[in-house]
Amino acid sequence: MLIVCFMCLTGSSVLLVRYFNPPFSMFMVRESNFFQKKIDYSWAPISNMGENIVLSIVATEDSNFCNHLGVDIKEIYKVVTKGEKRGASTITQQLAKNLFLWPERSFLRKVVELYFTLLIEIIIPKRRILEIYLNTVETSLLTFGVARASERYYNKPLNKLTKEQAIRIALTLPNPKARSPKKLNPYLVERISRLKKDIEILKKGDRSSCFL
Predict the structure, then answer these.
(1) Looking at domain 23-203, does it have CATH number 1.10.3810.10?
(2) Domains of the chain by residue range
(3) How far is the C-alpha of 169 from the C-alpha of 164, rounded, in Å?
(4) What are the tens digits of pLDDT across the range 85-115?
């Protein structure tokens, strides 16, 4: 009975965000100490973002986004076997953690994360998954969404960002409290030219067909 109730509750929660923009995420609740601190959060439809920021973040965070079901086995294999210094979490996994889950490193937490990841992939179209992620991802201290980052760092709307500006924002996402698009370390600056090539590759074939 408890399992059925859990599945109904979680399924309805995911279904709601398919059709309605979430007013907050669990990550926002934690970071703001249950909204005792003010958060900077506003919504931008993906159709108004422009392709530079969308492609930059997919190329940086999850280049196989269109071709997996929430878990990227190829990236996990690279991390485990080749020791690559990058996370293997997909955009869908990051969204599941940020939107629904509590901060804890445990086997149970990982199982629930996987459950939510698959649920999101089953219920929500890829383009909508990406739209929710782009609007709820942390981009600076108590600041959420790439639209706020664009206004904060470049004083312009997302669809006016240059390719390099968009890439710089994307490169801050793994550690937005410590990184600024205008003050990237030399290693990240070197990645910009490589990511420009990755973006052109991403635009070809079916690797961006689910969101462009």
Answers:
(1) yes
(2) 23-203
(3) 9
(4) 555 699 999 999 999 998 878 899 999 999 9
